[in-house]
Design brief:
The protein has about 160 residues and is an alpha+beta fold.
Length: about 160
């Protein structure tokens, strides 16, 4: 897989007006412009990721290439760009495939936030120390491990 850095100013506002407008808007609130990387296989674009150091802003893989390693390759690329390897990402709370993908990449949910569109999103990270076990889970684990259960098998009741 080849990764090609795409300079935001090389995205034509005439050809890709919505995309260029979105990227320009992202860059108005940042000290450094976002980075855009395209994953290419056999001269065919497979996916693209918009990110800033340590934060995946958006990752898109063509539907025909999903579950083929393109998303994982892009995430590894972003992870390799950080000194710590720690990334964060925001995902829509109803995007089950996205949440599952990030989970398989080692991400956990750390919090939720409400976006400018009044939609709830989950904040996820691959930082190991972000994993938190709620006290109730510890109580339930202790209960399951320590309660003796005797199963009586009566005739006809298995």
């Amino acid at each position: 897989m080849l990764f090609i850095q795409v300079a935001p100013d090389k995205i034509s506002p005439e050809t890709f007006p919505g995309l260029r407008e979105w990227i320009d808007e992202l860059n108005t609130i940042r000290a450094f412009p976002v980075s855009i990387v395209m994953a290419v296989e056999d001269d065919i674009p497979q996916g693209v990721m918009v990110y800033e150091l340590g934060n995946v802003i958006y990752l898109y893989v063509k539907p025909s290439e999903r579950r083929c390693g393109v998303g994982n390759a892009l995430m590894k690329y972003a992870k390799g760009k950080t000194a710590t390897g720690i990334l964060t990402a925001k995902v829509h709370s109803g995007n089950i495939p996205g949440i599952c993908f990030l989970t398989t990449c080692g991400f956990t949910i750390t919090s939720w936030l409400t976006g400018e569109d009044d939609i709830r999103y989950l904040r996820m990270t691959n930082a190991v120390d972000a994993v938190h076990t709620p006290p109730e889970e510890k109580y339930l684990d202790h209960f399951v491990r320590n309660v003796p259960v005797f199963i009586t098998m009566a005739e006809g009741n298995f």
